[in-house]
Amino acid sequence: MIKTIVKDVFFLGQKSTEATKEDLYLAKDLRDTLEFHKDACVGMAANMIGVRKRVIIVNMGFVDIVMFNPVLLKKDTPYETEEGCLSLVGVRKTTRYKNIEVEYFDKNWNKKRIRLSGWEAQICQHELDHLEGIII
């Protein structure tokens, strides 16, 4: 279901709680909402659609990956960039890392690890910040 994008900075500034198998429905809501906003958005966290759970979706080009309870395990090669956000007006400067490794549960609740670099790594880091209540 397509959800409304949350723009409340107080809500977005709160840390998200661990997702459970009961939160699997969020995969569809995030996919539908990201698809609806695909012209202006390449990733999304559950708090952006009003649910403070540790769930994100990242566009990988031809596929969108939903990650439940993602954890950043490794990062290297920092760089400065500017990012916008569907929940916020304008762009902000931030530091990102060129290469990252993330562990997460997939939609079947199987534990996975993924290495990302470049643009996909940047998107994932932005969404991971959302889970921590960091507003970029």
Give me a quick take on this structure.
This protein is 21% helix and 40% strand.
Topology:
Blueprint: H1 9-12, H2 26-36, E1 43-45, E2 55-59, E3 64-85, E4 88-105, E5 111-117, H3 118-131
Provide the β-strand percentage band. Answer: 35-45%
Largest sheet entry: 5 strands, antiparallel
Radius of gyration: 14 Å
Counting DSSP E segments of at least 2 residues, the number of strands comes to 5
Can you count the helices?
Answer: 3
**Would you tell me the overall average pLDDT?**
96
Q: How far apart are the first and last residues' alpha carbons, in Å?
A: 26 Å
Description:
This protein is an alpha+beta fold. It has three helices and five strands. The chain has a five-stranded antiparallel beta sheet. The longest helix is centred in the C-terminal third of the chain and has 14 residues, at about 120-130.
Which keywords apply here?
136 residues; alpha+beta; five-stranded antiparallel β-sheet; 3 helices; 5 strands; 40% strand
